[in-house]
Amino acid sequence: MHTGMLGLASGMIALRYLPVLPPVGWLLPMLCAGLFLLFWRRFAFGFFLLGLAWACFQGQRAIDDRLPAGLDGRTLWVEGRVVGLAQHADAVVRFELQGARSRHATLPKTLRLSWYGGPRVNTGEHWRLAVTLKRPRGLLNPQGFDYEAWLLAQRIGATGTVKDGQLLAPASHAWRDRLRQRLLRSDANGRAPWLAALVMGDGSGLSPEDWKVLQATGTVHLLVISGQHIGLFAGLIYGLIALLARYGAWPRALPWLPWACGLAFAGALGYGVLAGFEVPVQRACVMLGLVLIWRLRFRHLGLWLPFLLALNAVLIIEPLASLRPGFWLSFTAVAVLIFTFGARLGPWNWQAAWVRPQVLISVGLFPVLWILALPISLSGPLANLVAVPWISLLVLPAALLGAVLMPVPWLGDGLLWVSGGLLDWLILGLTALAGYFSPWSPGSVPISVWALSAVGALIVLLPAGVVLRPLGWPLVLLAVFMPRESVPLGQVEVMQLDVGQGLAFVLRTRHHTLLYDAGPKVRNLDQGERVVVPVLRSLGVQGLDLMLLSHADADHAGGALAVQRAFSVARVLSGDAAGLPAALQAHPCISGESWEWEGVKFSLWQWDGARDSNQKSCVLQVEANDERLLLTGDIDVQAERALLQSPLSVPTQWLQAPHHGSRTSSSMVFLKALSADTVLISRGHGNTFGHPHPQVMARYRALGMQVLDSAEQGAVWFRLGAFDSARGLREQRRFWRG
């Protein structure tokens, strides 16, 4: 039985790793083959094929529900109903529209929309909106968040920006919105947004600094509704009834165990409805229901049975759940607890029962966080030792009771005030702890090294006294002490990051690292913090020898402050130093300056006749083993003519497209003089500037130049000086990537 369930779950999880989905015509033979194997009692293989067929069928349904390519970038009038809680932050309203209809086209069932400067939008309202629609698309960088996978797991078929709209019908049942507004208006010691996150799963009121504190201390799971909240609340109800029964306070006419299980599950469902009953909450309720049934009737079958039943139930309901990081974290945490508690000999004292689970879960989650490219909190075990009981025993009960009893002003508001005060004490402690320990991002390593470290974590989780247990820690520590592949002398590792409509290049020699531009910052979206910093950490960069900002425009220098906060930067240069924030302490680019790192020559140039920031761009030429790269920033045709009179006007194999390939750059004279083999374009997919311009692309094609476009290839990297070809991250195929 266990073998069959493992095979079924493995088949559905295998969907995550498919480069392409099999043709629909193959699903029926796959299904028949699975049934045939089951008939011959090959349960593991038979259930694997059945699970894979079901997952592929659901994956294809989600892919088919995406916006047609012909509608990408078009503006249509659509009608639909708002679902979930809309997020209102920084003058932007973000919400999901379900059942969207248009007179001109068939649309996906669910759209994720942004309305800049829009009015308040509430759950259940019907709107008619003018929306510029886009196919699901996201930035793609090493160790980065895969936005396209997340959208597919949410079954969101398109994103869009609202241009105009009108409310057609108000919400008939907007009680969750009204409750949220009441919570946000409550006097909760200044922590009302935190209570809204804890009670309703609405984290939109938390600031970026709040999220950083939670991430640094590994406590994000405590302040947004997750499976742990559902389990804690149900456990409180179950434990209270069990305590009453133990001391004779529970009515003898009512058997305590069925009532404890039933009321615990009812409480979990009620909390889930309050939280919007989203997929993580659904997953938690399924798991909890199976555990309670096991506790009631099937304890003799062991702990792994409800775990496997819950795992398969979640995947059958939504096979795309395996694309979510939360799926792996929640099931891994539960598996670690079953493995460690189920294997212990004798009971633990209360100190061990309090401390050991946090330590063991941290060890067990380490390889999962590593392979999912999520930051690892060094202070997480310590923070959770206090935060878990503080939230579960004190803050959460008071907050939920306060939310339910808000119609009784003095009682409901009083409970919210108390819970807010308790939460405030905890947040002050977490903030202090976050100041001492920053989250750690282990670098990318070969899968074999990761597997050895994962095996080490498993060995560490074995019961005390097992002979091999001391060998686990050295394997785990491979993540810390594994020597990284070094760049050969005389070569440069070049990576063009996918930062959307902006620019960021990382150049690494054997012992030095240079960052050319730091990505864009638009409102609160800082790609320096979201993309550049995580990539540098994944590469094992400890500090920057030089941050060269071509000029002061926000799409090139916007992320510089975030980079400077995260790393020590020995020197900052810019072609427009006066236009940058004073905190960067940037020095002006000096035309003609050059230096050498490990046999690689770097040379700067700037047009002395520049009149605007684009023309002031500091151009960098890198030469390794007679192979050259030219990084041009946003220079235009006039600056290009001046550059052709400089020492940098020599044959160049790699060229960064000036000004993202705009019409005012990449003149034919300039391109012919450099005779580049490959041009690198960094731009946002479907950007409003029309980059790269069709005329410029025609010039590139006429000269036979290979075009590597970040919007099409994702991050691109190559070795300058090795005369090798470049690789784009989208070459690593996944079925959800367009």
UniProtKB/TrEMBL annotation:
Q: What coarse category fits the chief subcellular location reported for this protein? A: membrane
Residue stretches spanning the membrane: 20-40, 230-250, 256-281, 301-321, 327-347, 359-378, 390-408, 415-437, 449-468
Keyword Membrane (UniProt) = yes
Tell me where in or outside the cell this protein is found: Cell membrane
Membrane-topology descriptor: Multi-pass membrane protein
InterPro entries in the record: ComA-like_MBL (IPR035681), ComEC_N (IPR004477), Competence_ComEC/Rec2 (IPR004797), Competence_DNA_uptake (IPR052159), DUF4131 (IPR025405), Metallo-B-lactamas (IPR001279), RibonucZ/Hydroxyglut_hydro (IPR036866)
Q: Where is the Metallo-beta-lactamase domain?
A: 501-685
Its recorded name reads Competence protein ComEC
Instruction: Give the domain of life.
Output: Bacteria
Is NADP tagged as a keyword?
Answer: no
Keywords of this protein's UniProt record, alphabetized?
Answer: Cell membrane, Membrane, Transmembrane, Transmembrane helix
The UniProt entry, under SMART domains, shows:
Lactamase_B
**What broad taxonomic lineage does this protein's source fall under?**
Bacteria, Pseudomonadati, Pseudomonadota, Gammaproteobacteria, Pseudomonadales
